Amino acid sequence: MKNIYEIFVERGFVAQVTDEDPLRDLLQNNRITCYIGFDPTAASLHIGSLVPIMALTHMQQHGHRPIVLIGGGTGLIGDPSGKTEMRQLLTREQIDINAHCLQGQLSRYVDFQNRKSLLLNNADWLTKLNYLEFLREIGRHFSVNKMLAAESYKIRLEKGLNLIEFNYMLLQAYDFLYLLEHEDCLLQMGGNDQWGNILAGIDLIRRVKGKLAYGMTFPLLVTSRGYKMGKTEKGTVWLDPLLTTPYDYYQYWINTDDADVEKFLALFTFLPMEEIRKTRQLADYELNISKAVLAFEATKITHGDASAIAAFEESVRLFGSRPVEAGFFPSSTIPRADVKGTIHREIPALSATASGHSSLQIEGVRLEAGIPAFELFYEAGVCASKGEARRVLSQGGGYINDRQIINFDEKITVAHANEQGEIILRKGKKTYFIVTALI
């Protein structure tokens, strides 16, 4: 079995790490306890939390013991990391409700039975601290000059950093010390914006206990277009099915940009890397199948097999799809060739365009040669002129088979047609058009 550290590097999880070689050896030769903290600022986590969640799951699958730490105590203050303004302070009652919701949510990813993993809440010890004693025993180990140099504080100094936020680093460092003392936790992981807080905990452990602890951070992900993960036109993509339905969750992943498919398959699925790397050679409909595999696997991990299958079949029913061959991503459990692609023509989105038509037939010989996307959008009447078509597609408002068109002159060919010989064009959110290839 591969060293879990090598798996993290291979899949793109590692941004920064302390004492890389000793940590690699530790993970290779020992079963250790690690932790990641989640502040309960809302009743649900969102896609932006998936990288640390997946990291905990990988650790458990390789025999290590993860601690999921709910920040019921630190949440009362609010982490200033990555924020230009102070977070809104929540009441103790709100924090407790959110913490309870997150505990149930995280149970979908990590097995907490028989202490295979621990689910803890730092309110259990932070709310019992004596302030004067804490300052004497813990605060004396921190240099204010060093703290102000931390990136999480530097960006706040311009608009003002108040005392309550300034204490956050001390509390998170104390969490690491507490977990080392009580659960023999040697590794803290978190987003790259947590680097300063993690280093503070490692330094505190060294000063108080004389022991070596370790830290690892994950990259703060944005899409290839520079957009923050989990943000859409509809808003945040939540992990709670009541806030973001499994179908909408599936659609978020299937609309992944081409340039992000391999990266997201590596981070957000458990498929073997030798299969994932093959996406580098894929294009057009085969790359779209890869997106369907990504969407199915990501939905299955978060919402379960039944919801993933239902979302996949609904997507096929509405938008059409080629069947997935058994040899294509063989480790994926996505439904295979028994699911046939169809177009459901009665949904309101498939409405007539301004020209009064909802479909267009084009000779297959023209599609074999390829038609520039902007010309096809004009011929189909989706856009009133070629100029408008160029503008719409250049601004990201045009889609083919529910995939955003990147280049306005991308060649549309018979390879884009489904089994019925149909290609689905879309402008914006609601204007759909069916192009049928006469072959």
Distance between the termini: 50 Å
The fraction of residues in strands falls at 5-15%
From the spread of the alpha carbons, the general shape counts as elongated
CATH architecture descriptor name of the largest domain:
3-Layer(aba) Sandwich
| Total number of distinct structural domains | 3
Task: Tell me the major beta sheet.
Answer: 6 strands, mixed
What structural class do the secondary elements suggest?
alpha/beta
Query: Roughly how much helix do the residues carry, as a percent range?
Result: 40-55%
Any idea what the radius of gyration is? 25 Å
CATH topology of the largest domain: Rossmann fold
Strand order of the largest sheet: 1-6-5-2-3-4
Provide a descriptive summary of the structure in words.
The chain is of the alpha/beta class and 439 residues long. Helices cover 41% and strands 14% of the residues. It has a six-stranded mixed beta sheet with strand order 1-6-5-2-3-4, sandwiched between helices. Strand 7 (231-232) and strand 8 form a beta hairpin. The N and C termini lie far apart (50 Å). 38% of the residues are buried. The model is unreliable at 82-86 and 338-358 (pLDDT under 50).
Topology, element by element:
Blueprint (H helix, E strand, L loop, with lengths): L3 H8 L4 E2 L2 H10 L3 E6 L11 H12 L3 E6 L21 H15 L11 E4 L1 H4 L4 H7 L6 H5 L2 H7 L5 H4 L1 H16 L1 E7 L3 H15 L4 E5 L12 E2 L2 E2 L9 H9 L6 H8 L4 H4 L7 H20 L1 H15 L39 E5 H6 L1 E2 H7 L6 H9 L3 E3 L2 E2 L6 E2 L9 E6 L3 E8 L1
Parallel strand pairs: 2-3, 2-5, 3-4, 5-6, 9-15
Antiparallel strand pairs: 1-6, 7-8, 10-13, 11-12, 11-14, 14-15
